[in-house]
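How it folds
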Amino acid sequence: MKKVIALGLSAVMAASLAACGGATSSSGSTSTSSGSTSTSGSDSTAGGDYAGQTLKVAAIETAYGTAMWEKVADAFEAKTGATVELTMDKNLEDVIDPQMKGGEFYDVVHLATGRERALPETMLKENALVDLTDVLDMKVLGEDVTVGEKIIPGFTGNLTTNPYNDDRVYMMPMFYGPCGLFYNKANFTEGGGTLTLPTTWDEFFALADQTDIPLFTYPTAGYLDAFIYAMIPEVGGQEFFNKALQYDEATWASEEMGKMYEVLGKLAENTEKSTTANGNNDNFQKNQQLVLDNKALFMPNGNWVIGEMADAPRAEGFDWGFMALPAMEKDGDRYSYTFFEQCWVPAGSSNQELAKVFISYLYSDEAAEIFAEEGGAVQPIAGMTDKLDAEQAVYYSVYDNGAKAAIGTFASTKPVEGMNFKQIFCFTMDSVVNGTKTVDQWWSEMQEACKTMAGAM
């Protein structure tokens, strides 16, 4: 076996704040890498159905580290006799995009949508990915169960895995992280405090009369994508959510959407005042610190924030709490958006059969345990929450406690010159908080943006 691992070829900003996908690297932080390339392993003499074949795998290097992918590759080699050439980099696009443009393709790529370079989105627009629908019916390598039977319902069949809005899967779901509201348990009765944890938005805003602590902050407005994604099905349900992600004009102009923007407007009024000034790549942790200092009650984020703020000072008795968004009305549905990463196969891959076998192995109990133990990465596999430690289970079991999962992202479109959809969708909140725009102006701008994007589908 000869495994080539490319590690961090350049200094790079960590994962973009554009998505709630901080389950990758620490959002907004800056990290540098050694620029070294190392070789590990030895020539393989193992037998197997795929002995003599080589599989080229590229995976984004994130806060999960590299060891988990190295061990998964080793285990796959032991089972199949194949050789895995593994390339990892914090800025993976800079490594693999030029190679693919030169005709050198990888067989499996683990790189999520929602990043600044938007490489998988570009390849989808160019119809340059392999249809992986048949992988769902494949037996997991080494197990007597299919991939589709192991994946938690809802993690396929959404607009991320099925980007052309049909029944075909082109991106397979990988590591996931629930996004919701973080808070200090010590302020609430569950942690010995006096406040009652809100279950509806009315109860949420009523807290303003019970405490002097501002109700809300956000690291940067970019984190509001996952937050708003969870609000949309709360006001209109799952089909409403699907239509919204396809830029449906009537959906975005509806009375239900008006209720959502009404809540967003109230949140803006109850947002801690320094939030917008610090809501950038350099200072976003100052907003996260507000929750630790009891200077803001709630903050939308993903479970990676625990690690990001592990060494930060905090109020006496502080204890992280996490919940789904409050419901729009009593006994209404509560949602938590789930960010998940994806893996895919370029159409130019020269070993697509083995690529699919490798992907099937990624859902095996063996691989899942390696990912969880070595990197703390959790896959959407049935029964995984039972294997997590108590701290992890608090977040990953949110769906076991009555919350519903909001899954998916806006549909892919052709490029629209001059359109910064993310800016309108999320960052207009800064202007509403600062008072330079009204929430009705935000809603109107969003409707116009969706009309434009719908024309580019």
User: Anything to note?
Assistant: The radius of gyration is 22 Å.
